[in-house]
Amino acid sequence: MASFRTPARPRSRRMLAVALGLGLAGAALGTAAPATAHKAADAPASAAVGFVGAGGKDDSKAFFDAVLKSVAARQAEQPSLKVVTVYYNASQAPTFRTQIANAASIWNSSVSNVKLQATSGTGDFAYYEGNDARGSYASTNGHGRGYIFLDYAQNRQYNSTRVTAHETGHVLGLPDHYSGPCSELMSGGGPGPSCTNAYPNSAERSRVNQLWAYGLAQAIAKVNAAR
After folding, report:
1. Which candidate, 4, 25, 80, 131, has a CA 20 to 30 Å from the CA of 183?
2. In a 10 Å sphere around its CB, with 0-12 CB exposed, 13-18 middle and 19+ buried, how is residue 192 labelled?
3. Residue 167 is among the residues annotated as catalytic for this protein
4. How many CB atoms are located within 10 Å of the residue 141 CB?
5. How far is CA 74 from CA 123, 148, 220, in A?
């Protein structure tokens, strides 16, 4: 699992499910959790690994593959679709509505081979919010669906839009790279709380475009072959 690393938290024990954890947080949020807050256990499906780097590229790929499978099934059913769209449901993370919308806008303006779009129905992944000692993370349920959990504490400590855009980067196929500079979105919490950059760099943009150009074509072929 990929995670967002900060020095203030201990490493969590690895659990059974594939997950991508990451820590970041934003100064824009208040200190009190709203009544609609979810605990991590309320999020659907499998448990997540802690956000301090317990996972790696294999876990990141597992989450991406789950979302890719969901999108490929839809594209195979509707081959006339011209735009590859990943749908997300943010209804369970109302506190982060603005950050989620901003993250989607950032990625949509940064890449051309895939677009993020909100839905009120069942999406390819969903956002949840609440308190979790592991911090923010992205996780797959292993059945073609995934979710992003946004932790209140991290989003007070780190720039919240960076947290959300980083986690969304996992959905699009990117792993963590904590040793990277602030200009690298997937460096997560590595550069520290002073880093507020929420945009992927050129290498990250290129990688996402490549993944969705070739990876999706292969996934659609697999869907069609299985029929």
Report:
1. 131
2. exposed
3. yes
4. 17
5. 11, 21, 9
Q: Name the residue among 190, 114, 187, 99 with its Cα closest to residue 148.
A: 99
pTM score, two decimals?
0.76
> Cβ–Cβ contacts within 10 Å for residue 22, how many?
35
The burial of 218, by beta-carbon neighbours within 10 Å (0-12 exposed, 13-18 middle, 19 or more buried), is given as exposed
155 token code pair = 């989003």
Q: Which of 77, 129, 167, 204 is catalytic?
A: 167
Cβ count within 10 A of residue 16: 8
- State the alpha helices, DSSP H only, in 31-134: 57-77, 97-110
**pLDDT tens column, 147-165:** 899 999 999 999 999 999 9
Checking 72-75 for CB contacts under 8 A at 24+ apart, the result is 72/216, 72/219, 72/220, 72/222, 72/223, 73/144, 73/223, 75/216, 75/220
